[in-house]
Every structure is written in C-alpha cells, then in structure tokens.
Amino acid sequence: MLLATENLLINYTSTAMNVALSALVGDLRTTLTGVQSVISLYALVVAAFLITGSKVGARYGYRRVFVLGGGVFALGALVTAFGPRLPFTLLGWSLLQGLGVALMLPALVAMLTAAFTGADRTRALSTLAMTSGIGAAAGPVVGGLITGYLSWRVSFLLGAGVTLVVAGLVRRTADAGPVAVRPDGRRFDVLGVVLSTSGLALVVVATLFAGRYGLLRARQDFTVFGHTLLERGGLSPVALLSGVGLVVLAAFAWWERHLVRGGGDPLVRVSVLRNRTVRTGTSTQLMQVLVPNGALFLVPVFLQTTLGFDALRCGIVLLPTAVGLLVAAAPTARRVGRGRMSHRAAAMGSFAFMAAGCAAIAVLFSPRAQGLTAVGLALAPGVLLVGLGRGMATTITDLIQSAPPPEEVSDVTGLSRTGSYLGGAFGVALAGALLTPALLYAFEAGVGDSGVLSSAQKQQATRTLEQQVQITAASDDVLRAKVTTRGFTGAAADELVRINAQAREQALTVSVTGMAVLAFAGRLVARRIPPSPQLDRGSGVPSAPGRDS
C-alpha cells in the first residue's frame, strides 16, 4: 500500500502541472517556453537515469535506495514550492525530483517483485500499474482544483509531505529480498552510466523536438547559441539526434557485454533481452503506454483550441479513462493470477480496446457540440474504451518481472521502466508529429479550394503558413487575431477561421486514427508473447518453457 501510494503520487505529479502553466508563468515571472523547458528536462532526467537507479538499488539495497530517492524527491518538491524564480524550479522539479523518481521507481517495482509470488505478485504489480493510470488521470482534475482554489505550490508541498511519510514508514520495514552487497573488487560501471544517460537523453530530446521540427525534414532552422546548424528544408534535428542517440546506446550495449566477458559488474546485462518473454513483454509495454498517451494528448488539445475548455473541464471529460481502468484492471489481474487468462490474451485485448477507443474518438468527436455535457457524452465511449485497454494492460509488468531469475531482476526492471517511460514520450511526440502535417495539409487544401479568397490572398496565406516558426492547433479567436495583423479582415478573415476550424477537425481525425493503427501494431507485437510461463506459486520462478535464453 505504501509503495502504491508513492507510485500514484509520482504519476499525479507528472500530469498535475499541465493545467497550471499560466499560473507558473505568472508566479515565476517567466515565459511559457521556460516552464515547458522545466517539464521537458524533468522527463529527460527520469528517462536517462532509470537504468542507473535500478543498478544502484541492486548494489546497495532497494529499501535504502527508495528512501534515499524519497528524500531527494521531497527536497526537490520543497525547493520548487518555495522557489521564487525559474532557476529554483529547474533545480527542484527538473533535477532533484527527476533523480528522486529515477531512484524510487525501479526500487519499488523490485521490492514488490521480491515480496510476492504467483497470483499475489500478479495482483500487486497490476495494482501498481493501476495506480499509475489513476494518478496520471487524476492529475489534471485535482491539479486544476488545487491551482484554482489554493496555489500550484500546494501540490508540491503535499507531494513532499506524503513522500516523507512513505519513505519514513518504508525505512522501518524489513528490506524486500536479499541485502545487496557491493561485489568485491569490481567498480561501479561509471562509463556505462555516461553512455546510457547520454544516449537516452539524446533520444528523449529528439522526441521533444518532433512536434516543432518534424521527423525527417526540418520545418525551420535549427539554431544553437545563435548558429544555424541545420537549415529549414534539410535534415531534421530529430533524425540527427535520435540517430546519434541510437549509436551511443549501441556503444553502451557493446560496453556492457565487454564488462560481462571480462568479469566486471555491468550497469545492466543487456543479454536479458535474449529472453523472449522479457523482450516481447517490454516492447508490448512500451506500446501500451505509447498509444493512450498519444490519444489522450490529442483530445485536450482540441477541447481547448476548438471549444475553449479550461483544464478542469478537460480533466472531467477524460474521467471515463480512470473509470475504465478501474473496471478492467482488477478482474484482469484475478483471471491472469488464477490461470484463466494468459498475459498474451490480456495484452492483445488491451490493444483491441485501445484501437476501438481511438476509432470512436475519431468518429464521434464533433466541434459543433456545445457544452461540457454534450462533449463529454460524445467522447465518453472512446475515452472509456481507452481506459478499459489501459486496465487490461496492467498485468504486463507482472509478466516481465516474473520472467527472469532473481539475479537478473534489477536488469529487467531498469530496462522495462525505461521502455515504459520512453513509450510515454514517444506517444506524445508521434501524436504531435501526425497532427502538424495533417493540420498543414488540410489548411493549405482549404485555402486552395476557397471561393472567397482572392489569388493574392491565397498566396499570402500560404506563404505566411510556410514561414510560421511553429505550427500548432489554434483557436478561432487566436487565429482571427493573427490574420488581422496580416491584413485579412471581413469576409477573408471569416473564411480563414472557417478553414482553420475544418482543418483542426480533419487533423484530429487523422491523428487519432494514426493512434488506432499503432494500437493494431501493438497487438501484433503482443501476439509474439510466448504462452505465459507456468509459475511455481511457491517460488515465483518460471519453469523452463517460459525461457529461451
């Protein structure tokens, strides 16, 4: 219960501040770009250090590292809550809280894996995954309420208080599993830390740039410290950075194998990926996070830009996601734990629900619907189905953690947690990468087909669109203000607003349909999961048929 509580808090923290951007900008006397940089850096720190956090826990004890991570996380929350300017937020939220999460997450998963076996482990790890979804879903609603009636700083104060209580209580409990002892004569893999963190950081930064620069062809100049490194129309920095990141990660994998052959203590044994259950389970988990994160990123974007919904009303519309997760998670865990459903069947079912949910959102969303009730009812079937899919996906952690022998649990934990976190980043990045080209194409097509705009106005609108630094979905009021500054008034301005509204609707349909296609791709990945290994309910060790390494 303690670990699930902290896991819920971590996931709540990751989404709660998305509704408080304006308040953060005003209180910290900064810009929206500055606040977005804080959020992006937090994601980068967590993803880059998860593998390292898992190894530290394996060497020095999971309980000790969890408590240490909790202290770092709470310190970061306090620095953020009382910090008057953006640099304090960067230190407290992005760096300290990011490092705290990277230490705590692998430790809490490993402790639960060691503390339970068989059906009990399935329920425990499924509950952990369920609290992740609930925390992320509750973030916008609870965060909106706290920000609106109190202050965004209260969320960080509450986070610090809860984490200190949890860490203090965990410190008094017996450590789960054997006490880790530092291997004699073997140094900590510092080079592995450098290679893994830098490689993952490059990949994460590339995903964060996807919406702005495009995946392959740069939509604008890529400038660093006033120097243009990549010109508009050439290679996108996304392709370049991700390519370099993959090369660095390949070097990391080579170095880890080299350490194993030389009798050293690697940061992670990449050989665990030879285990088919671990390999396909981790890939499935990444897709199970990617699809709903992408779909549930798109819906609030259009609710705010098309209907003018505030963050609280967006959160209310998305509540069926949490309901679906709660409805599906516990029954799925019971059936899997009792052997009445395989992990593979649960994973494939989760993607079927996600695909159906994305399709329902694409079909039922209508910008002509007015009011919270009408919009909520129209979107409820789709977001509920996505939630049901997330609920069925909660057993995948149990499959992955149950596959390796005890001595490889930390390796698998680090890799799977990193994969899950990268899935969330990739989901948002791919959703944005699908959204922007669809929006551009639909707007340009609408301008070209317009019978209201003159040839000169069409050329001016197209040229202005191509020169935009960053294209995002814009509300009618925002677009009208922009086109007015460009000299469009009267019927011409009304026509551009109409085209923009139609382009938004088409872009949402294309983007969410793309998420449905990715859900089908995830289902194909899940089909490769081997039949669930027959677990010894007393020991939790998979029998030989469950392993191929």
TrEMBL record:
Its main location: membrane. Residues 1-463 form the Major facilitator superfamily (MFS) profile domain. Keywords: Antibiotic resistance, Cell membrane, Membrane, Transmembrane, Transmembrane helix, Transport. The chain crosses the membrane at residues 34-53, 65-83, 95-116, 128-146, 152-170, 190-215, 235-255, 286-303, 315-333, 345-365, 371-389, 421-443. GO terms for molecular function: transmembrane transporter activity. One of its GO terms (cellular component) is plasma membrane. It holds the Pfam family MFS_1. It is a multi-pass membrane protein. GO terms for biological process: response to antibiotic. PROSITE patterns: MFS (PS50850). The keyword NADP does not apply. It is found in: Cell membrane. InterPro entries: MFS, MFS_dom, MFS_trans_sf. This is Major facilitator superfamily (MFS) profile domain-containing protein. It comes from Streptomyces bungoensis.
